[in-house]
Specification:
The longest helix is centred in the N-terminal third of the chain and has 22 residues, at 71-92. This protein has helices at residues 15-20, 33-42, 48-57, 71-92, 102-108, 112-121, 128-143, 152-165, 169-176, 179-199, 257-273, 297-318, 342-347; strands at residues 3-4, 66-67, 98-100, 210-219, 224-234, 245-250, 279-284, 289-294. Among the domains are: 15-45, no CATH class; 128-204, no CATH class. With 352 residues, it is an alpha/beta fold. The protein binds iron/sulfur cluster. Iron/sulfur cluster binds next to helix 6 and helix 13.
């Protein structure tokens, strides 16, 4: 067994389960547990949603799963060996080096026709829907260090100012947007930040919170690169004990690929650090609810298989000339190809 301890036993996180047990103490601080207990008593004015955050993400140090030190090398080896012939095939048609993000993998495993259209078009540029998450995360990051009362609009204003000054593609776009786009961006970011502040306890520096944490794994002599950016990480590993949790903050509702996205991030973290996160979770801000999953060796290797499967599909489409497969689903409603796609229109009841 690679992993021992409580890794295969998800902790109950339902309200009923939470009522049965005493309030959880976050487990990623060990030396100061007494001070933590006291702090939590002082900060005890948590609403039920905030308490649930502690219940779902917290765990005592002795329950953290241990992972074998060789896991990192084994995951990398599995990826390198299976991707090598695919990287070679991509190179032959000039499609390597190639970077894969969680969005690429979700797209490849969804409608191939849409993926190929996006692949050909490249990055479409920044827009309000693309920028609102970055602005909100910057504002949440600032909220950790504000000593006065946290006012979401003030945080978002400050985040906008700082991001606009940055020497980046996003900064350049923000310098040129209209007053109305800026107003829309502000409103959408304030909505996210307000919900976060309402539903989460204030992030304490001792929890080691990091917003927009980048993860990079280069493989096969840098011909294939896997990249991610985690919305929020909390805690850290100690030795080979997994103490970190990764959180994706989302508006809208649940989709199965959200868990796949987080398993992909867990895989990148496991290869980067040698110890995977203890738990991953999607937090739905509009609903104030978690969908968490414990990280296991099996889930890491299933993430490996999903990466390899995605690269394989890309090779079949761009190097093998296989026709792209249409796959209908809820995403057809906002697909840019919908107007010309009869299959997609029929699937959403718009045959005309
Ligand atoms: S409308 Fe649906 S089926 Fe058609 S290309 Fe878009 S995602 Fe695919």
């Amino acid at each position: 067994m690679w992993c021992s301890g409580a890794s295969g036993t998800p902790k109950g996180h339902s309200l009923a389960a939470a009522r049965r047990r005493p309030p959880a103490i976050p487990g990623w601080v060990t030396r100061c547990s007494y001070r933590w207990n006291v702090t939590l008593v002082v900060d005890a004015e948590l609403n039920p949603a905030q308490q649930e955050v502690l219940d779902v993400l917290g765990a005592s140090r002795d329950s953290w799963p241990q992972f074998e030190p060789g896991l990192r090398a084994e995951l990398r080896h599995e990826l390198e060996v299976t991707l090598e012939p695919l990287a070679h095939a991509l190179e032959r048609v000039g499609a390597a080096p190639r970077t894969f993000t969680k969005h690429d993998l979700s797209s490849i495993h969804g409608c191939e026709e849409r993926f190929m259209a996006e692949h050909a078009a490249g990055f479409p540029g920044w827009s309000v829907p693309k920028a609102r998450g970055v602005v909100a995360h910057k504002a949440i990051e600032l909220s950790m260090h504000v000593r006065d009362e946290v006012v979401p609009l003030h945080l978002v204003d400050e985040a906008l100012a700082r991001l606009t000054e940055k020497d980046s593609g996003l900064g350049s776009w923000m310098q040129t947007i209209t007053e109305f786009d800026r107003a829309e961006l502000t409103g959408e970011a304030v909505d996210r930040v307000s919900k976060f502040v309402e539903c989460w306890p204030k992030l304490k520096p001792a929890w080691r919170p990091v917003l927009e944490s980048k993860l990079i794994v280069d493989l096969c002599d840098e011909r294939v690169s896997l990249r991610g950016k985690v919305d929020l990480t909390l805690g850290m590993a100690q030795g080979t004990a997994a103490g970190k949790v990764l959180v994706d903050l989302k508006t809208g509702g649940f989709a199965p690929e959200h868990l796949d996205d987080l398993r992909f991030y867990a895989l990148l973290e496991a290869i980067r650090l040698g110890v995977p996160p203890r738990r991953v979770a999607t937090y739905y801000l509009d609903a104030g609810r978690f969908v968490p999953a414990d990280v296991t060796v099996d889930s890491l290797f299933s993430a490996v298989a999903r990466v390899v499967g995605g690269v394989q599909v890309l090779v079949e489409l761009v190097a093998g000339g296989r026709p792209a497969v249409l796959r209908t689903g809820p995403a057809c409603r906002w697909c840019p190809l919908l107007v010309g796609c009869e299959t997609g229109r029929l699937s959403i009841g718009d045959g005309g």
